[in-house]
């Protein structure tokens, strides 16, 4: 009977997804399931980033279109667009991304801090895997960001 390698035990699984031409990674244990966008029953919303609610396996959940939040232009409607169903500490929700690519195993020491990103607490760091640079995100922190109202002026 073999004993597990302690170095391998440190590695965590991360789901890699594409968004706006960049590769991101989030902890796989936050992922409940992957679904194609077209397979979900959707109800529209007037929100910019919150694109409505969906029903998946009888559960109603909000859906956030990360292509709008991170992209420079409105997303194209593509039948191959993926929805990552997340099980967060506060709720279950869907996250629309350009596509899911793979799952990678990362050790904490592989993830390097991002220079100048101290004020952005949802960015965990950068890692290079097979020649690709992945931006590692803390999905709980990212999804807890509140939309800031810009343009409101104070009276002098």
Automatic annotation (TrEMBL):
Residues annotated as domain CheW-like: 11-148
Cellular compartment(s): Cytoplasm
Biological process, per Gene Ontology: chemotaxis; signal transduction
Name of the molecule in the record: Chemotaxis protein CheW
Organism: Duganella guangzhouensis
PANTHER family, per the entry: CHEMOTAXIS PROTEIN CHEW, CHEMOTAXIS SENSOR HISTIDINE KINASE-RELATED
Keyword list, A-Z: Cytoplasm
Cited InterPro entries: CheW (IPR039315), CheW-like_dom_sf (IPR036061), CheW-lke_dom (IPR002545)
GO CC annotation: cytosol
């Amino acid at each position: 009977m073999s004993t597990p390698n302690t170095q391998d035990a440190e590695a965590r699984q991360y789901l890699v997804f594409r968004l706006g031409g960049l590769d991101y990674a989030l902890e796989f244990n936050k992922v409940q399931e992957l679904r194609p966008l077209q397979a979900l029953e959707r109800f529209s919303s007037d929100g910019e980033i919150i694109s409505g609610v969906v029903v998946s396996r009888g559960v109603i959940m909000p859906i956030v279109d990360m292509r709008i939040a991170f992209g420079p232009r409105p997303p194209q409607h593509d039948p191959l667009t993926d929805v990552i169903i997340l099980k967060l500490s506060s709720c279950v929700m869907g996250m629309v991304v350009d596509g899911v690519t793979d799952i990678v195993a990362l050790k904490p020491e592989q993830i390097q801090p991002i220079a100048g990103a101290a004020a952005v607490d949802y960015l965990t760091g950068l890692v290079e895997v097979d020649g690709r640079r992945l931006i590692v995100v803390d999905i709980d922190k990212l999804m807890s960001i509140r939309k800031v109202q810009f343009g409101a002026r104070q009276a002098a």
